[in-house]
Amino acid sequence: MDHTMQLTEEQQAILDGAQGETMARVMETLVRYGEIFGATKMVPVTSQYNHLVTSFGLKALTPVYDLMNQLIETGATSKQRFSADPRPLDPNVPSNFIQNIVFKKFMYSKQDFYEGQLHKLGLMEKDAFTCACYMDEVGNTPAEGEVLSWSESSAVVYANSVLGARCNRNSGIIDLMGSVVGYVPYFGLLTDEGRKADWIVEVRTTKRPEAQLLGSAIGMKVMEDVPYIVGLDRWLGELDEDARTYLKDFGAATASNGAVGLYHVEGITPEAVRQGRGLVKPGARTYVVDDAELQRVYDSYPVVWKKRDARPKLCFMGCPHMSLNQLVTWTERIEQALAELGRDRVVIPTVFTAAPAVLKLFGETPYAARLKATGVITSYICPLMYMNNPLCASMPVITSSNKLRTYTSARYYTDDEILEQITKGGER
């Protein structure tokens, strides 16, 4: 192929077919992909593990399965073991007979087959399915400065921002190809210049802003640009477990309500701690977020339910997947709210989703039995994949996830509003 990218001898040899036709086509795909974005070279993927966004065995993904088979049959498997996004199905999550038929016969009928392909290609372990692969319990936490080949938007923005790793917002399959060939094109968020901020976001709220709401506001304002956020350290303090959980949800909202792949938080995230406002480009624009601006954003969300005042039939929490401290904190909050109401169980079917490894550890604590006693279900699935079923999409579902709100018919409420709805229901 004709190309303008400067390749090393090894990279050029792969492109010329030294490792077989399949590897040559993988390299060609990455070169063409990189050149679209102005990349002039390829750089090695340096992380120990990869993460794939495509985890669901949709019947319509036949070309993906064919590609996977070709990679497996020619030995062009991943140079890294990898985790993958959450599974789409869990029998513990409420669904009726007709919904299950749609799930199993018309949507995810190839799930078992596809998971078999993933194992052959290098899946980390049987249950390495989560969008929050970077959590300690999962074991796919890249180090600062490592080059990744990921594509799950909420994972990419977390790795770039909170961990200081380097990764572009790739598409599905491109993530796998980078891992197979061991190189990714050098552009965008892999470069020092690409990691500088186009915006200064001043947080001037009178209380700690809702993570998902603040992330939504910033994402919709800056879109794919890099924001440098000041004033949030007042509410987060230091980069401890609570702050990491907050930034997990905040980042997912910036990535789904906009297209943010990296943000800096002054005094908190690693690059901002070291470089400060040296990360801000000359002429950066300013966006002020105060209480009124957050309320404006909240009020702008459309309600796409057939009946706006319908009683919710299901609540999903955990998009992205919940952390262990969220599961513990929410157990305590639900218990307290129910006790104040003189109740034992939630009044709306409620599902908390988390990584299998997190759920396993949670299950070893006394909180697991306490949460189960409130009627809340824990699951490893992707709520978005559940809501892709048109019969589920027609249900009035509530959530505090701005990602789930953006991509489905689920209705967004703040954490406090969710707590009130699932414990108090329609009472006033």
TrEMBL record:
UniProt xrefs under Pfam families: AcnX
Gene Ontology terms, MF aspect: lyase activity
Lyase is among the record's keywords: yes
Organism phylogeny: Bacteria, Bacillati, Actinomycetota, Coriobacteriia, Coriobacteriales
Top-level taxon: Bacteria
Domain Phosphomevalonate dehydratase large subunit-like: 5-412
Protein name according to UniProt: Phosphomevalonate dehydratase large subunit-like domain-containing protein
Keywords, sorted A to Z: Iron, Lyase
